[in-house]
Amino acid sequence: MATLSSLLLTALLWVPVGTLTCYGDSGQPVDWFVVYKLPAHTGSGDATQNGLRYKYFDEHSEDWSDGVGFINSTTGAVGRSLLPLYRNNNSQLAFVLYNDQPPKSSESKDSSSRGHTKGVLLLDQEGGFWLIHSVPNFPPRASSAVYSWPPGAQKYGQTLICVSFPLTQFLDISKQLTYTYPLVYDHRLEGDFAQKFPYLEEVVKGHHVRQGPWNSSVTLTSKKGATFQSFAKFGNFGDDLYSGWLAEALGSTLQVQFWQRSSGILPSNCSGAQHVFDVTQTAFPGPAGPAFNATEDHSKWCVTPKGPWACVGDMNRNQREEHRGGGTLCAQMLWKAFKPLVKAWEPCEKKSRAYSLGSPAGLWT
Ligand SMILES: *[C@@H]1O[C@H](CO)[C@@H](O)[C@H](O)[C@H]1NC(C)=O
Ligand SMILES: *[C@@H]1O[C@H](CO)[C@@H](O)[C@H](O)[C@H]1NC(C)=O
Ligand SMILES: *[C@@H]1O[C@H](CO)[C@@H](O)[C@H](O)[C@H]1NC(C)=O
Ligand SMILES: *[C@@H]1O[C@H](CO)[C@@H](O)[C@H](O)[C@H]1NC(C)=O
Ligand SMILES: *[C@@H]1O[C@H](CO)[C@@H](O)[C@H](O)[C@H]1NC(C)=O
Questions:
Q1: Which of 191, 164, 228, 171 is nearest to 18 (CA)?
Q2: Which BP terms in the Gene Ontology apply to this protein (predicted)?
Q3: Ligand 2 centroid to 84 CA: how many Å?
Q4: Model pTM?
Q5: How far is the centre of ligand 4, averaged over its atoms, from the C-alpha of 245 (Å)?
Q6: Share of the chain residues as helix, strand and coil, in percent rounded to the nearest 5
C-alpha cells in the first residue's frame, strides 16, 4: 500500500521535461492520436453543434470513442494540443503552420503550385509534435491568440493525426517537407532552431527538392518508440500517390477515402499487381455508428484491407494532384482503427478486372 501511494505521489509530482506533446481527449499527454471529425448531417439534435462532433482513437484505444466535447473546444485533443501556440509565453517554441488553403488574410498567396498539404509542426528544445490534417483554413495563426475551428470546415468529415516526436526526428520530418512543398502561412524559427533544422528554414522560404528522385520515404520513431512510415512526393513525381507508389510500397491492395467533389477524380485502379479502390461509404461500427458517403467527407486516409497498414495524410486521388506535392503517414497501429470503417468502395471496371489477378468482388463483405 505504501509503495502504491508513493508511486502515485511520484506520478503526480513528476513533470516530464519535454511537455510539448500531443494531448489526448483525457487531457493527458499521449504519444499519438487520430481524430475523425464527422460530417454535419450525421448528427441529430442541435443543428449548430452538428459538424463539431468527432470520434477519437489513441495508443490506448481498442475502438473509436466519442470525442469529449466539440472540435472547437480546447478541452478536446486537437484544441488542447494546439494551446501552446496561442499562449503569450510561447517565445521558447518553434512552429511551422502550413496549409494550401490558409486562414483568410489580406495577402492571399497563390497556392496552386504548392503541395496539397496541411499541418503543424510545434516544438521546443526537447521535441514536439507533427499534426497532419485535412482541414481548410486551419489552424488560426499564433497571433490570433485563441484556438478556433473554421465555420467552413464544419459541414464535411475531416481527419487529423498528431504524433509526439523527440527533437532529432524533426530533421527527417523537415526533409520530407522539402518534397511536399507546403504553403507556410505562419512560423517561428528563432534562436538555434534555424541552425538545428536547416531544411525547415528552406521550407519556410519556399524552397523545395531540386533533383530526383521526386519521392522520399522515411521511418519515424515517436517519443514512446512507435514506428511510423512517412511517404512524401514532390509535384514532379507526376503520378498518383496511391496507385503510383503506396500500394506497391506497402505490398497490398489499398482502399482510399478522399474528397470526391473535385474534377478529374481517378477511378479505382486494378492495372497494377496491387489494386487501389476508391472508398464510397464509411461507417463506424455499432448500430448507432454514424455512416456517410465519401461525398460528405473531406478526410484523406487509406487502409490495406488484410492488414497491417493504415495511413492518414494529405492527398486525394485526382489528376491535378498527380502533379502536386503531398504525402501520408502510415502505421500498423492505425490498422485496427481504420479497417472496420470501410463500408463500400468502387470496384474496378470489368475490362481491367478481367486482366487482374484475384477478384475485387471477392473482397465485398
Ligand atoms: C463551438 O461552436 C458552437 C457552435 O457554433 C458554439 O455554440 C460554441 O460556443 C463554440 N465553442 C467554443 C468553445 O468556441
Ligand atoms: C505558460 O503559461 C501557462 C499558463 O497560461 C503555464 O501553464 C505554462 O507552464 C507556461 N509555460 C511556460 C514555458 O512558462
Ligand atoms: C493505374 O495506375 C497506374 C500507376 O499509377 C497508372 O500508370 C495507370 O495509368 C492507372 N490507370 C488508370 C486507368 O488510371
Ligand atoms: C519512389 O516511387 C517509386 C514508385 O513510383 C518507387 O519504386 C521508389 O522506390 C520510390 N523512391 C523512394 C526513394 O522511395
Ligand atoms: C449516398 O449517396 C447515394 C447516391 O450516391 C445516395 O442515394 C444516398 O442517399 C447517400 N447516403 C447518404 C447517407 O448521404
A1: 164
A2: apoptotic DNA fragmentation
A3: 8
A4: 0.90
A5: 6
A6: 25, 30, 45
